[in-house]
Structures are given as structure tokens and as C-alpha cells.
Amino acid sequence: MIFVTTYKVKPFLTKEETAELMGVFAANGPGPGTTAHYVAADGSHGMVISENDDIGAAYRNILNYTQWVEYDTTVMLDIDDADEVVWGICHSHVASPPEPSSTDVGLAAYPDALYLICSFAGPEPVVRAWSIQNGAVSEIVLEPM
I want to staple 98 with a disulfide (CB 3.0 to 4.6 A). Which of 43, 60, 63, 119 is the partner? Predict the structure, then answer.
């Protein structure tokens, strides 16, 4: 199963609490099956992507950090077992063009999916579609019906 865990650091941690959190992370690491860990530039929140067949192991690792961090974990559909496919993934860019960022390319885990990006950077929203396969990015032209 693929797990996407978003988290935010609890507000108003002291320097001592932050140091303690970093010590626990150094001792325990990101968790079994972690494939990516992204942290916001200001350190206030982040996202961990992992692949693990043992849901218990994934949650046990999260428990190491609950004193300092709040979590929202979503178990993604186990695509292989369900005989399903991800055909499209959509997200937005608030202040940048609707083009895949390096983070988007790094997170692109479904090479057959269409990546739709909506930008709110201009006066009107703009949506563009992309194919992202093994780091190669190609625009797919959307045509109105």
C-alpha cells in the first residue's frame, strides 16, 4: 500500500522541544518503506510518502513523533490488488505557472497518469496537463469539447 502522510509541527515549540524532536527523528528515522519526505521551507509542515504492506509498522513509527507533530494519514488505494489504475492527478499552484515543479516531477509516481495543474497566479485560473515519466515531462494539449 502507498501511504501519504501530511503533517504540521505543533505551533510554539521551544528550542528545547525542537531539539528533542530532531533527536527522536535521528534515532528513529523516517520510517519503514519511506520513499520521499518533503518539508516546507519554513519547517512548519511536510509530507511523507511510503510504501509498506504492514500498516502497523507505518503507524508505530508515526507514534514516535506525536508529542510534537500532528498527522493526517491517508491510505491510498492498493492499486495492484484492486485491479485499478490512477488515470489522473490534479493539484494547484497558487502563485506559479501551471507547469510541473521539480517537486512535482520527483513525486510523479504514476507514469501512465495525466498530471493536471491549475494555476491561480494570473487574473484567471489556467489548467494544463502533463505526462511525467521517469523524470521526462511532456505537455498534453487539452482541447475543449
Answer: 119
